[in-house]
Amino acid sequence: MKDASTPGESSEKKYSFLRPKFGNRIVRTVIACLVTAIIYRYFLSDRNPCFALIGAVYGMGSQFQEGFHNGFNRFVGTFIGGLVVIPSYWLYYNAPFGVPSEVYMCLGLFFVMYINFILGANNAIQPGTVIYFVVMFTQPEAGYVSYTIARIIDTGVGVLISLGLTMMRPTMIDREKGVELLTFFEALSESFKAWRYANKSGSLPQLDAEGRAAKREERKAKYIERHTY
């Protein structure tokens, strides 16, 4: 049986398949990475921008809370994995007490995962293991500690750049919530609470239209209060 669709419809489907639409988030992410790359090229030229760029990608979401959630998980994971890999690296390559190196490697991996579980940051486990294995198997003994510390800092810088750009040009959802540059610290506080909620429930809290309107009015009232003498 022949397809009932018209030739125009077939070509339109083919065109959509070959050229899928891209959203605003892709553009914003590319801009965040561009800004990060420029900062590292001209102001931090002695540092490797890799982890900062990864942090910038994680820190850009469809709304501020989503970017904070993913970016903060990336930073927490990198921080925990970085702290654990420093002693684990020495144990792996020196293998004291005659214990096989692989045992020390797995023990360190266990602590990376377990500490994140204790913190309730289950989604931070994957980025934590990334920095753990990258340092463990790619860095020379002479500079692995300084490399680890630098990568932790770089990840945080990249995340902050994306969050800062989001505040400078908030998404439609963020504008409905009243999120803007002047409310940066309030948004950070609320996003941290949402991060803790998401780690327990598995998803970020959502506001309906009335909830967003109420939040917007609350922010307006606080703004007026701060600027009234």
Beta-strand percentage range: under 5%
Number of domains: 1
Rounded average pLDDT = 85
Give me the Rg, rounded: 22 Å
Poorly predicted tracts of residues: 8-13
SSE succession: HHHHHHHHHH
Q: State the end-to-end distance.
A: 77 Å
Number of helices: 10
What's the shape? Answer: globular
Tally of DSSP β-strands: 0
The portion of residues assigned to helices is: over 70%
- What structural category arises from helix and sheet content? mainly alpha
Characterize the biggest β-sheet: none
What does this structure look like?
It is a single chain. This protein has ten helices and no strands. With 229 residues, the protein is mainly alpha-helical. The protein has one domain. α2 crosses α7, α3 packs antiparallel against α4 and α4 packs parallel to α6. The longest helix has 31 residues. The chain is globular and about 65 Å long. The protein starts with 6 loop residues before the first helix and ends with a helix.
Quickly list its features.
229 residues; mainly alpha; single chain; 0% strand; 10 helices
How do the helices and strands line up, and which of them pair or pack?
Elements: H1 7-18, H2 24-42, H3 50-58, H4 64-94, H5 101-119, H6 125-138, H7 144-168, H8 172-177, H9 184-201, H10 209-226
